[in-house]
Structure formats: structure tokens, C-alpha cells
């Protein structure tokens, strides 16, 4: 006999709960906020809206179905089953936090605080749950297959993300590494536009700048920077977009369902041994960005979850590209 469907509610501890846990009481938390020109009532009201949303969604789950809850901080220890329906109640970023731990389960994003969140990933209201939950199990339900990005280290460590992956030094200090593009794509830098990892203006693929050399994969450049971002079309609404706009990059940002990524180097530093010829670009479904550590310790983490990162030591390499897995977001 088959098991009843299981709904997994993903939520996050509210700011109010964190304040009371830290300061001990509501009164102490109120005093702390007032000393900084804030009113606790505004924080408490957002907490109440989130709790109401969770209650409304829970009450919409059929009585014969199983259900479970997981807080954001416990996602890396929670075991999702293939037949689960995942309901994220909170902000857009909470969907991204959960995405890396899923393997094709349908995801319903519920906006716990309409008007405060953009609603890119939490597209529905709590009152829609009674209709959405049975529909998520039905074959043919409209879902968007959102592209994800993955990083695979040479020691088989693997990291997935929905928005972006950051590679650099812990604490965002100066990272030293060698960077190149494999399998095509295009990049831009102080040396001009690059295609397929080779300079578009020089037939031999030679790039001006310290530390640049050619290999079978194209140009590999020694760099010193505050890190590298590789983002998806979903991430193009967040961190990667802000960097892209600041640079005025001519390459178009991808759509959320497009098998294309964009990458950029943050604050690359030119020197006699490091260059800035490859500081931004795009990756197709068959190309990869490669990075080899030349610092004692570099990390890679996805979607802002720095506590769940893979680590690279001197000489280790990592390849970043389009992930074969998709996030199935109920439209």
C-alpha cells in the first residue's frame, strides 16, 4: 500500500523570535530596538503575519496526508523524500536556500509578507494552499524548470545553488587563484571581449596582463580579487544583477529557465603577476569556469549559505557550470 503524500513546510525563524531568544524577554528586546530608533511592534507584526501564514497553510493540508516542518538552519540535515511536496513559507531567498537539497520535488512558494517580498519565487498567498497542494501532485501541473548552478571540486566535493555560487576567501578578503573557461562561452575584461576563452582580436589567444597564459582549454589567468560570482537567470534578480549593472556589462543576463550562466570577478587587482583580462562572461550548458586555488584556503558557497560551503586548499581546482538538476517551481 502506498504512503499518503507528505508536505514538508520550510520556514525560517523570524527576526522577532531571534531578538527575544537573544535578549530573553519581549521587554528587553523592545528596549534594545528603541535604543536604535526602531519600534518592536513593527517587528512583532511581521512575526504574527508569518505565523498566520504557517497556520493557514497547515490547515489546508488534507487530514490524511503526512506533514513535516524544517527550519532554514536545519535544511542541510533534513532528508527529503522523492515523493514530497515542498511548501516554502517566507521570503524568495528561502526557496533558494531549500533548492540545493531537492532532487526534483515540486516546490510551492508562499509569500508570508506580501508587499515586502518581490515574489519572484514565493508567488502565492497562504489562501491559495488548499488549491495548490493537490495540484502539485497532479501530472501536468504547470511548473517552471529553473536552471541551477553547480561547482564540483577535484576531490568530488559538490555544491548546488539556485541563485549564485561565490568562490573566494573566507571573510571576502583577497583570494589568489588561476581562472579559465572550458568549452566555449564569452568573457570580457580590460583586454577586450573574449570568446571561447581566447582573445577575439588575437588569433593565438594571447592576453595582455600579468599572469595570463594559454592552455588546451584557452586562456588561464592568475588573478587576485575579492572573489568570483557565477549566477543563474534566477540569481539575475539579485546579487549578480547588482554587480552586472554596476559594471555596465554588455552581455545579456539569462532568463530563469535558460541553460546559461553569467560570471564576474569582484575587484580584480592588476599587478606584475596577476591580470584583469577575464573579469566577466557567460557559460553555455556545455562550458565551465575553472578555478585553481593559489591561496591556503578558499571556499565556495551558494545562495548566501556560507555555513554550508566546500573548501579548497592550495592547488585544488573546481569547475563551475550549469547543473543537470532543476528546481521545479509550481507557477
Helix content: 10-25%
Order of helices and strands: EHHHEEHEHEEEEEEEEEEHEEEEEE
Which percent range describes the beta-strand content? 35-45%
Rg, please? 22 Å
Q: How would you sum up the major sheet?
A: 11 strands, mixed
End-to-end separation: 31 Å
**How many strands appear in the DSSP assignment?**
20
Could you say which overall geometry the principal axes of the C-alpha atoms support?
globular
Helical segment count: 6
Unreliable stretches, pLDDT < 50, 5 or more residues? 191-217
Structural class by helix and strand composition: alpha+beta
Mean pLDDT: 88
What features would you highlight for this structure?
single chain, 11-stranded mixed β-sheet, 9-stranded antiparallel β-sheet, 20 strands, about 20% helix
What features would you describe in this structure?
By secondary structure, the chain is α+β, with helices and mostly antiparallel strands. The chain has helices at 15-23, 26-34, 40-60, 92-99, 129-137, 239-247, and strands spanning 6-11, 66-71, 85-90, 106-111, 143-153, 158-161, 164-168, 175-182, 186-189, 192-195, 198-199, 212-215, 218-225, 228-231, 261-265, 280-283, 288-293, 297-302, 310-313, 317-330. Strands 1, 2, 3, 4, 5, 6, 8, 12, 13, 17 and 20 form an 11-stranded mixed beta sheet that branches. The longest helix is centred in the first third of the chain and has 21 residues, at 40-60. It starts with 5 loop residues before the first strand and ends with a strand. The model is unreliable at 191-217 (pLDDT under 50).
